[in-house]
Amino acid sequence: AQSVTQLGSHVSVSEGALVLLRCNYSSSVPPYLFWYVQYPNQGLQLLLKYTTGATLVKGINGFEAEFKKSETSFHLTKPSAHMSDAAEYFCAVSEGDQGGKLIFGQGTELSVKP
Amino acid sequence: DVKVTQSSRYLVKRTGEKVFLECVQDMDHENMFWYRQDPGLGLRLIYFSYDVKMKEKGDIPEGYSVSREKKERFSLILESASTNQTSMYLCASSPAGGGRNTIYFGEGSWLTVV
Fold it and tell me: Which of A2, A28, A54, B82 has a 20 to 30 Å separation from B60 between CA atoms?
């Protein structure tokens, strides 16, 4: 069965510092991987996704993630945090042609200190 | 722009009441989903549908049912609400074509059962 583990339920960084949110997945077939962001009292918005091809994926708001098959990881990074990045981030996996069902990690809340 | 609309953002219901959560999408998507979001648990799939009048159970269907009479509308029904169903409910949709497609989320419905 598929699963997703996000390491760290809360991450705090200073404004301008590197953001690193960790995600590891378990899948029996090549996965499709997603990162979503949720701002307070809102739904989820897609940041980026990996389907096939280039393993380094760039998304919105300066975020990127790298698919590493050997490590079963899909960590999210941003070189320089902004106050507006404070939100909850979810990693998710979808297997092949499973009709788009997503299995989500537990979420990581990112705080940005001035 | 893609739009998934959940008609009720905040609801308070009494134990034992029948509750309807309505969701409409305007993108002509084939797939629709209901997720439940709880702190520390991420999002869990309740039910999904790949076509009109079609439904399949997700990971936590107990205590819920769904209805999809029209392509654009997917309703979640709590037959007899209980306090452990107090949660945030997220509706989502995606086009047909497998797991690589982006799933689009609504703003969420906060349900409190007292």
Answer: A28
State the pLDDT at residue A60: 95
Residue A70, φ and ψ in degrees, nearest 5: -65, -30
Q: In what order do the strands lie in the sheet with A64-68?
A: A3-7, A19-26, A73-78, A64-68, A56-58
pLDDT band at residue A98 using 50, 70 and 90 as cut-offs: low
A1 vs B38, higher pLDDT: B38
Helix (H, G, I), strand (E, B) or coil at A85: helix
Is the Cβ–Cβ distance between B113 and B60 less than 8 Å? no
* The predicted structure's pLDDT at residue A2: 82
Torsion angle, alpha carbons of B97, B105, B3, A63, to 10: -90
> Best of B10, B89, B105, B107 to disrupt the A interface by mutation (most A CBs within 10 Å)?
B105
Q: Is the pLDDT of residue A84 over 80?
A: yes
CB-based contact A95 B94, cutoff 8 Å: no
B93 vs B50: CA distance, rounded Å:
10
| Nearest-CA distance B42 → chain A (Å) | 4
Q: What is the CA radius of gyration of chain B?
A: 13
- Residue A10: exposure state from Cβ atoms within 10 A (0-12, 13-18, ≥19): exposed
Q: How far apart are CA B108 and CA B6, in angstroms?
A: 7
Beta bridge partners of A41: none
Q: What does the alpha-carbon distance between residue A48 and residue A65 come to, in Å, rounded to a whole number?
A: 8
